[in-house]
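ugh ok so i messed up the first submission bc i forgot one of the chains. this is the corrected input, ALL of the components this time, i swear. 115 residues overall. if the numbers dont match what u have on ur side tell me asap before i send this to the collaborators (the ones from the other lab, u know who)
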Amino acid sequence: MKTQVGVLMALLWIQICWIRVEMQVEQSPRVLILQEGRNSSLTCNTSVAMAGVQWFQQNPGGRLIFLFYIASGVEQKGRLEATVSTKERYSHLYIRDSQPGDSATFFCTVEAQCP
Ligand SMILES: *[C@@H]1O[C@H](CO)[C@@H](O)[C@H](O)[C@H]1NC(C)=O
Ligand SMILES: *[C@@H]1O[C@H](CO)[C@@H](O)[C@H](O)[C@H]1NC(C)=O
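and heres the new structure output, hopefully the right one now
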């Protein structure tokens, strides 16, 4: 019985927290020209502390590819690497050794940390 109450309260708290958070997310640069063989990076920063960040890639055909969910440190996937600093409110996506096939829209979604 105690556990049930605990879960219920936790859910309620998360909901309240979601409503209270008004967050702005900024991604830069907006447009990045990839040069073959070069390294590039994108940054997402937010106005409130982050709990985690997701990075997606959308190909010219419209297909959406999930790349990373990152809550701390560094994650790597092939030539892509994501880092996050939840305290400093930013995440970087690095594209190493760019290939013509990397042309896509990259974007981030941010999970806010409760204040
Ligand atoms: C890209 O980054 C990798 C590892 O971070 C490095 O070894 C390589 O020299 C860099 N390439 C260029 C063109 O800067
Ligand atoms: C993102 O960082 C830039 C440069 O530090 C800052 O000017 C901007 O206000 C930040 N954006 C958000 C949404 O916090």
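quick check: The pocket of 2-acetamido-2-deoxy-beta-D-glucopyranose (ligand 2) is lined by residues 24, 26, 45-47 (CB under 6 Å). that seems consistent at least. Residues 80 and 95 are 5 Å apart (CA to CA).
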